[in-house]
Amino acid sequence: MLRRRSSHNRLRFLLCGVDFSRHSRAALRCAAALASATGARLTVLFVDDPLLVAAAARQGRGNGGRKTRAALARFVATALKASGARVECVTAVGEPGPEIARFARRQKADMVVVGTRGVGEARALLFGSTANSVVRHVRIPVVVVPLPGRTGR
User: Fold this and answer.
1) Which of these, 123, 55, 65, lies nearest to 92 by C-alpha position?
2) What is the per-residue pLDDT for 143?
3) Vertex 123, ends 43 and 114: CA angle to 5°?
4) pLDDT score at 124
5) How far apart are CA 137 and CA 104, in angstroms?
6) Single pTM value for the model
7) Which of 94, 137, 93, 81 is nearest to 114 (CA)?
8) Residue 111, domain member (yes or no)
């Protein structure tokens, strides 16, 4: 059970990094539960690959940002059907780990929530490269959420 913290230590702003994977869906659900329990604001951040954004722009598909935001909104709505958490969806372009850390610092997040691994090349690792990067580059608590029902090895 989560207890409310004192006002000077209260969670006010949670950041959840997602990549549309089932791992990030689990992280998003955990972040929404934390936000609901503490009254914190929740921002969901998807970081787009700069090479893919540039390639789309060269092919005349420069509205990819709008499509990405729409896809993110659908992902969040589907994952959080009736959570009651206040959620803001944000997209950025860059390398996911450093961009999540940069956004957390810039926005003064109180906590970051990410999945154990996503859809990147580090797929075979238990602790993905994005989660590892975030843990190393922020000075606030980071919750790394495994898939539900998984047990340690």
Assistant:
1) 65
2) 95
3) 20
4) 40
5) 10
6) 0.82
7) 137
8) yes
Cα 133 to its chain centre, rounded Å, is 13
pLDDT confidence of residue 149: 73
Give the type of residue at 40: A
| 5 part of a folded domain | no
**Residue 79's pLDDT band (boundaries 50, 70, 90)?**
very high
**Full domain range(s) for residue 92:** 13-145
CA distances (Å), 83 to each of 26, 38, 151, in order?
A: 13, 13, 25
Number of domains within the chain: 1
Q: Which two tokens stand for residue 153?
A: 């090895």
Give the domain CATH number at 17.
Answer: 3.40.50.620
pLDDT attached to residue 123: 44
Determine how β-strand 13-18 pairs with β-strand 111-115.
Answer: parallel
27 in a structural domain: yes
Three-state SS string across the chain, please?
CCCCCCCCCCCCEEEEEECCCHHHHHHHHHHHHHHHHHCCEEEEEEEECHHHHHHHHHCCCCCHHHHHHHHHHHHHHHHCCCCCCCEEEEEEECCHHHHHHHHHHHCCCCEEEEECCCCCHHHHCCCCHHHHHHHHHCCCCEEEECCCCCCCC
Assigned domain for 150 exists: no
